[in-house]
Design brief:
Blueprint (H helix, E strand, L loop, with lengths): L7 H20 L8 H5 L4 E10 L5 E12 L5 E7 L5 H17 L6 E6 L8 H15 L8 E4 L6 H15 L19 H18 L9 E5 L3 H12 L3 E7 L2 E4 L6 H13 L7 H4 L4 E4 L10 E4 L8 H9 L4 E3 L8 H10 L2 E3 L1 H4 L2 H15 L5 H23 L8 H20 L3
Parallel strand pairs: 3-4, 3-5, 6-7, 6-10, 10-11, 11-12
Antiparallel strand pairs: 1-2, 2-4, 7-8, 8-9
Helix pairs in contact: 1-3, 1-15, 3-15, 4-5, 6-7, 6-13, 6-14, 7-8, 10-11, 13-14, 14-15
Bound molecules: NADPH dihydro-nicotinamide-adenine-dinucleotide phosphate.
Pfam family, one: ELFV_dehydrog_N
Subunit structure: Homohexamer.
GO molecular function: glutamate dehydrogenase (NADP+) activity; nucleotide binding
């Protein structure tokens, strides 16, 4: 706290892990007195750099770029790049720290990292985004590589941005390698990667519900966000016979009490991914739906809630409302969307709650599969990748049960995910000595 007191999101993420992992360390001699957690909370490297670029009118802008290389004990650093005005060292350190545990949980050999910039792609032309991405990569390229650090997308970084970033890396290094994941299908991308985080979150919710003899079919589902994760979580829920009634963006949420179908989802994907529009436009197309400006969707009654937008978007008060309205399952599609009070409330009410590092790990897991395909220079089919994704999510669920099951029969998935993620990284760090 002394060293990172000015970094609230990072402290929040570390505290959550410490609460469950420190007692475990105390109980296990091999981890005691080795300062493992103290070493894990200090990034191996934090790079910050200037990104200067020129807009369409010839005006020069300066943004700040970052890469947090948190832990490489079990593999090359791996984690997304976020372009959003809110980006700062605290947010990226929290995301990188979470990523270490998440990547460990996937069982794939990936260390943890995260990066990005306070650049806002909203309202920028494609040319401006390209110039920014190229400028960003002229510095980042010195610090990454297929065996060193393999970034991916996150908020504000989708297929378009990954393309521009990859193009500049390739030009500077004169080599075509799997240095980024989330690439286009015709140039090294993996099938199912765009879908993987959202699909994986729903597979995880399905596994949790199964422990209570329940399923997705017929359930009402509230989803926040309308970006990559939210879109594909919604798609999978619809495929499995659930009813998605909300989506949102930073300006408000839409409530469609009739539920969304494939056609409505296709409209949302076109609106957000191609037209780069706002979710409010949904009610112009489907007037029976409602738009609630400036609000989040948590007061809408539901069986399942999937927060898929951003950190701390669901408060303790929102959690209470969800519980009172009969919600039985919450799976985080975003990273740390539920604040500390909300997580406490879910645990207190003993409802199913999955932390993002477990439930949204499908994205990075499939990125790991993309790296494997790149190294082998092969491309697996959609079914092959989806089957592997399901298996990995199932394994993560099992790990959470193994370390998180309490005597009263309630599974604390936060504890389970933290300890399972910790053990593998800690063992590797112990084996490699004090470095
Ligand atoms: P996108 O940029 O595709 O979408 C983000 C969505 O969240 C948009 O609807 C956006 O609305 C909304 N949003 C962003 N900031 C805020 C805010 N401050 N308040 C309310 N809404 C906000 O990002 P992704 O879908 O990729 O990422 C969403 C979350 O999932 C993030 O937490 C990310 O870290 C996490 N995640 C993503 C993975 C991936 O594979 N993409 C993997 C694992 C986790 P608006 O358009 O108005 O900004």
């Amino acid at each position: 706290k002394v060293r990172n007191g000015h970094e609230p999101e990072f402290i929040q993420a570390v505290q959550e892990v410490a609460e469950t992992v420190l007692p475990y360390i105390d109980e296990h001699e091999i981890y005691r007195g080795k300062s493992i957690l103290s070493r894990m909370v200090e990034p191996e490297r934090l790079i910050s750099f200037r990104v200067a670029w020129v807009d369409d009118k010839g005006k020069i802008h300066v943004n700040r770029g970052y890469r947090v290389q948190m832990n490489s004990a079990i593999g090359p650093y791996k984690g997304g790049l976020r372009f959003h005005p809110s980006v700062n060292a605290s947010i990226l350190k929290f995301l990188a720290f979470e990523q270490v545990f998440k990547n460990s949980l996937t069982t794939l050999p990936m260390g943890g990292g995260k990066g990005g910039s306070d650049f806002d792609p909203k309202g920028k032309s494609d040319d401006e985004v390209m110039r920014f991405c190229h400028a960003f990569m002229t510095e980042l390229c010195r610090h990454i590589g297929p065996n060193t650090d393999v970034p991916a997308g996150d908020i504000g970084v989708g297929a378009r941005e990954i393309g521009f970033l990859f193009g500049m890396y390739k030009k500077i290094n004169n080599e075509f390698t799997g240095v980024l994941t989330g690439k286009g299908l015709s140039w090294g991308g993996s099938k199912i990667r765009p879908e993987a985080t959202g699909y994986g979150t729903v597979y995880f919710a399905q596994d949790m519900l199964k422990t209570k003899g329940e399923g997705i079919k017929g359930k009402t589902v509230v989803i926040s966000g309308s970006g990559n994760v939210a879109q594909y979580a919604a798609e999978k829920i619809v495929h499995l016979g659930g009813k998605v009634v909300t989506l949102s963006d930073s300006a408000g949420y839409i409530y469609d009490k009739e539920g969304m179908d494939e056609e409505k989802l296709a409209y949302v994907m076109d609106l957000k991914n191609n037209k780069r529009g706002r979710i409010a436009e949904y009610v112009e197309k489907y007037p029976s739906a409602e738009y609630h400006e400036g609000k989040t969707p948590w007061a809408v009654p539901c069986d399942i809630a999937l927060p898929c937008a951003t950190q701390n978007e669901l408060s303790g008060g929102d959690a209470k409302t969800l519980i009172e309205n009969g919600c039985i399952c919450v799976a985080e599609g975003a990273n740390m969307p539920c604040d500390t009070e909300a997580v406490r409330a879910f645990h207190h009410a003993k409802i199913l709650f999955a932390p993002g590092k477990a439930s949204n790990a499908g994205g990075v897991a499939t990125s790991g599969l993309e790296m494997s395909q790149n190294s082998l220079r092969i491309s697996w089919t959609r079914e092959e990748v989806d089957d592997r994704l399901k298996l990995i999510m199932g394994d993560i669920h099992e790990s959470c049960i193994k370390y998180g099951m309490e005597d009263n029969g309630y599974c604390n998935y936060v504890k389970g995910a933290n300890i399972a993620g910790f053990v593998k990284v800690a063992d590797a760090m112990l084996a490699q000595g004090v470095i």
